[in-house]
Amino acid sequence: MAGKIRVLVAKPGLDGHDRGAKVVAAALRDAGMEVIYSGLHQTPEQVVSMALQEDVDVVALSILSGAHMTLVPRIQELLKKEGMDDVLLTGGGIIPPADMTALKAQGVGELFGPGTPTSAIIDYIRVWVENRDSARSGA
Amino acid sequence: MDLDALKRDLELWKDRSVHKARDRDQVFATLSGNTINTLYTPLDIQDLDYQRDLGFPGEYPFTRGIHANMYRGRQWTMRQFSGFGTAEETNQRYHFLLGKGQTGLSVAFDFPTLMGYDSDHPRSLGEVGRCGVAIDSLEDMETLFRGIPLDKVSTSMTINGPACTLLALYVAAAEKQGVDSKSLRGTIQNDMLKEYMAQHAWCFPIEASLRIITDIMEYGLTEVPQWNTISISGYHIREAGSTAAQELAFTLANGFTYVERGIARGLPVDEFASRLSFFWDVHLDFFEEIAKFRAARRIWAREMKERFGATRREPMLLRTHAQTAGVSLTAQQPENNIVRTAIEALAAVLGGTQSLHTNSMDETWALPTDKAVQIALRTQQVIAHEHNVSETVDPLGGSYYVEELTNRLEKEAYAYFDRIKKIGGVVKGLEDGWFQREIQASARRYQDEVEAKQRIIVGVNDLVIENEKLEIPLLTIDPALEQQQVARVQRLRATRDAAKADRALEALKRACDGDQNIMPSLVECARCYVTQGEMIGVMRGVFGEYHEPVFI
User: Fold this and answer.
1) A7 phi and psi, to 5 degrees?
2) By the 8 A CB rule, do B508 and B92 touch?
3) Do the beta carbons of residue B354 and residue B66 sit within 8 Å?
4) Residue B480 domain-assigned?
5) In chain A, whose CA is at the least distance from the CA of B367?
6) B406 is in which domain, residue-wise?
7) Does the residue B67 lie in any domain?
8) In which band, very low, low, confident or very high, does the pLDDT at A137 lie, cut at 50, 70 and 90?
9) In principle, which of A109, A120, B163, B245 could form an S-S bond with B190, CB 3.0–4.6 Å?
């Protein structure tokens, strides 16, 4: 792909826990990605409009409020509506395994829990973007 | 003691033993990055003056504890923070906990409540009852404490932005039980400075929040004199990534800021500062945490006496709640969290806490189950009854290491106080993002240490179980509860005396516009079944909203 991978690290919902989001954002930036951080307390609409405006490859959500089963599908739906089908929707936080499975079955990307090394997230995003881009150029 | 002779002998001992006793190849440092020596001796605390720096428990400077006989008189209050779903579910959990021997209540609110939105606000979608209990009105508050006489329990409410409205609802709920507000005991967290710093649940800009907090301190003096009006909290600062010294310094600096505001309002420091309490994190580093509690008591007592001119004993006492460190828990092999929590709880007790919450093993996955909470509570009860750790006061006092750590943390805190002064004080530092950056840098350093395996976390970066499956049950919250709560608050608005509610809200607006204390008008709103979202809505209209400095 041409240029840096662009990632929106977003905090949808009302929880104010930004330690994880910021540590991940800084690690992605240090790994050479272009990182936009949304700030706290964003609505799904705000997240998607930021993703559109910033023309990102990846939307990485951080949710620790338990509202993931509402917020993640809503953001997924809005991304689709805006034609951002080739954007990776991934994320992490406090998410029970059953909910992770359900969200992934709905087409959401990998969801990372506590204890994940930032290198795992960096690798996952790089590989995903490479695969997307090689599929594009192959088509 | 002949310190010169000791110094000479110590050097000889080093010469004799250094070739036999080689250290492992690792950095020996506290969790906060302070070097740890092989051995501590009287040489490390040669400036320590027992009477000046430690004194006797229950007496200035309270380093050894705030009561003369500490836990021999009364054990610490075992206070598990809990709340989920609606007031119905949480009321049942409270009866369960009280039945298991818990001695105080602690309310966890859901995010809409913490942010001052009613359950039917568009921003509340998907969040109602998820991370705590949803409380919209007096009706919910009455349900929450059904069967629990409010003159008999002490209740801690973790609420900040809308603390004024929740206190008003509590006072109104007590009235309905026939309980006078003057006999209410408990705490509202009401510490907005640490919200802007670390926890990030806010309603209004900083100066408006400080005015409201000062109103609450003033109201407390006459109307709820046994209530702790602010719980000055290091917990969230630490959980957001700070070091022990930053937690200590930033929290105390916030405390001093509230005291300055109270004095500026003309409130008597001996009175209002007696109702300030504290809340510390207890993290993994056992001795550093114990030292932190001890240093905190000494600094607070000294500053209250020497800087703020307190003359009574109470305002100098640093009374504190403590909670084991949520961030120290792992999602991997969650049963191991029971052990981490037990050792952290022990540190809190040896540090001399007045009340304690122990986290449950499953909280890296979800809110805890009844079973997990019971184990967490039993952990405290085992410490209280079986190990004889609380039979004598401050048993680690006099340990060369603990005293040296206590002195070191105190010194670090004063260095931070100087820096905070240089950057223009707490409010200016928050506006500039200075505190936020300091905390963030520490969080990043910690993460880097873990990833570089400079710090081993069992089950996470070492001693891992490959393809581990989660084997403990998790609590699920029925999504239907959100609709029920939405219907409840909408029915309430439709059926209450609308004219009375409107009049109460108008009076609130007038109080906010002027310089009247807002608390009486909030209590009147609560009585009229005005919802907390409506109260905060009116206040947002007057005070505006807070916009955080956004940066990575």
Assistant:
1) -125, 130
2) no
3) yes
4) no
5) A66
6) 45-423+433-451
7) yes
8) confident
9) B163
Burial class (CB in 10 A: 0-12, 13-18, 19+), B229: buried
User: Is a pLDDT exceeding 70 seen at residue A132?
Assistant: yes
Q: What is the token pair recorded at A33?
A: 């990605």
Tell me the backbone φ, ψ of residue A53, rounded to 5 degrees.
Answer: -60, -40
Instruction: Tell me the shortest Cα–Cα distance from A139 to chain B, in angstroms.
Output: 36
Taking contacts as CB-CB distances below 8 angstroms, the residues of chain B near A35 are 552
Q: Ramachandran region of residue A102, left (φ > 0), alpha (ψ -120 to 50) or beta?
A: alpha
The parent domain of residue A117 ranges over 6-138
Q: How many domains are contained in chain A?
A: 1
Quick check: B537 and B522 in contact, CB under 8 A? no
Over its C-alpha atoms, chain A yields an Rg (Å, rounded) of: 14
β-strand pairing of A6-10 with A34-37:
parallel
Q: How far is B440 from chain A (nearest CA, A)?
A: 7
Q: What is the CATH number of the domain that holds A52?
A: 3.40.50.280
* Distances in whole angstroms, Cα of residue A125 to Cα of each of A32, A37, A136, B39: 12, 16, 16, 47
The H or E element spanning position B233 is strand B230-233
B123 and A14 within 8 Å at the Cβ level: the answer is yes
Q: Does the residue B498 lie in any domain?
A: no
Query: Does residue B550 belong to any structural domain of this protein?
Result: no
Specify if A92 maps to a domain. Answer: yes
Is pLDDT of A56 > 90?
yes
Classified as helix, coil or strand, B504 is helix
Q: What ipTM was reported for this prediction? A: 0.94
Q: Specify if A57 maps to a domain.
A: yes
Q: How many CB pairs under 8 A join A and B?
A: 109
How many domains in chain B?
1
DSSP code of B136?
A: -
pTM for this model (two decimals): 0.97
Write out chain B residues lying below 8 Å of A38, CB-based.
Answer: 550
CB-nearest to A114 from B130, B330, B479 is B330
Closest chain B CA to residue A70: B126
Flag whether pLDDT at A1 surpasses 60. no
The distance of A136 to chain B (nearest Cα, Å) reads 32
Nearest CB among B124, B130, B548 relative to A39 is that of B548
Rounded average pLDDT over A87-93: 98
Q: Residue B125 gets which letter from DSSP?
A: T
Task: Give the 3-state secondary structure of residue B324.
Answer: strand
Which CATH number goes with the domain that contains B94?
Answer: 3.20.20.240
User: Using a CB-CB distance cutoff of 8 angstroms, which residues of chain A are in contact with residue B363?
Assistant: 94
CA atoms within 13 A on the CB side of B182: 2
For residue B296, the distance in angstroms to the closest alpha carbon of chain A comes to 25
DSSP readout, B445-501?
Answer: HHHHHHHTTSS--BTTTBSPPTT----S------THHHHHHHHHHHHHHHHS-HHHH
Comparing CA positions, the residue from B261, B370, B330, B235 lying closest to residue A113 is B330
Query: In the structure, what pLDDT confidence band is assigned to residue A139 with cuts at 50, 70 and 90?
Result: low
